[in-house]
Amino acid sequence: METLKQAQANFPRLAIRAATTTTATRTTTTTARATKLSAQALAARKTLASVSFGLSSSSNNVFSARSGHHQMSTNVATAAAAAADTTAVLEGKAAPHGGKLSDLMVTDEAERSALIAACEGRTIELSDRNACDVELLMVGGFSPLEGFMNQEEYESVVETMRLPSGLLFGLPVVMDTDDDSLAAGMKVLLTYNGQNLAVMEIESTYKPNKPLEAKKCYGTSSLEHPGVQMISMERGGTYMGGKIHGLELPTRVFPCKTPAEVRSMLPANVDVVAFQCRNPVHKAHYELFTRALDAENVGDDGVVLVHPTCGPTQDDDIPGVVRYRTYEVLKEETADPKVNWAYLPYSMHMAGPREAIQHMIIRKNYGCTHFIIGRDMAGSKSCLDGEDFYGAYDAQDLAKANSEELGVKTVPSLNIVYTDEEGYVTADIASDKGLSIKKLSGTKFRQMLRAGEDIPEWFAFKSVVKVLRENS
């Protein structure tokens, strides 16, 4: 039930939205959406009249968590997870994965200096991909992990999609090297573009089974898959497991809020629907994630978190810095109070179903309760013949199968199309009404962009197009 303060804030906004959401403009929606908004406004009015107060709560499966790489006893782990979950509910936010949000940053200057000195000059210069992993470990995006996976954890996640504790985890998080001088018991300084990001305690080194990792995690061992290319041709031949001590976050053009910071900016006691993307947001995307708030399993006062990945993706994708600029101008242009924006320092694997699980876990750690699963999410095509590696709904199916256990509800991506008669509608409505559908492929859009041709306003936001042209 809404609080009085929420109701006071919601009633005028919902009434306005209900009155304006049936026009055939950029924000065109179905009559059903307007009806739902009217019902929301009525509910807010009733709350104001009755001055009722309540505290919403939710239940999530809580698993025994690992503290670093030392297994806690079952009773202690369960108690800690339960305590963390209780705190999260009292604060009105979803509990992190495993019950506790990891924070590996070392703030004491003497301790930081001692950690660096203990490295005895040993350093690893991180790749862009590894720097993203280190950052997400340090800030808790990969909670409950407190370091890179050891061999037991790596093999467990590869073969079963679970940590040894039984907790779901989509993909292994590993540190690779070709330096044979690095051994268990050592500390090594992890550097990136002139910064000292972290110190890693090397607890173990091991030779990964890369063909098995590829087959289990990516569904194929073919080098035609970009993720398989990455683990086979970019990563070193040895993996290292061990705890991470965070020193500083990478300096980026696109600022990435930590899970704690994102949680603090999100409203309490409401559903938070995460939208993941790795490309600029066009009008169909905007319609998709704003209409997601009208899904049957999303509460009336729910909000969206647009949470694009700005780390390395596929070679032909638009660079992260450019994508970030498009998001910033769109955020300013739309200024929708129901839409929150943050950026994720994550390196895409294009692992399809497995990566959908990974994204759900990460967004859960950032405070989200729902996740939009698109058609062929994180999918990839063969670099030789263009054939898809995954079925269109494989990611949705795996996400749905694990949704309850993860404590994150899935919101299927609507098939939104643009019509001459009614603007953006769902494809089934367009078909039922015999409406004229307009189409523009991503390939054609990029060709038009490069050629300096006018981009249809029904397809893309002018502000986004301007940024893309300036950076092409």
From TrEMBL:
Its EC number is 2.7.7.4. It is an enzyme of class 2 (transferase). Residues 257-470 form the Sulphate adenylyltransferase catalytic domain. It holds the Pfam family PUA_2. GO terms for molecular function: ATP binding; sulfate adenylyltransferase (ATP) activity. Pathway: Sulfur metabolism; hydrogen sulfide biosynthesis; sulfite from sulfate: step 1/3. This is sulfate adenylyltransferase. It comes from Chloropicon roscoffensis.
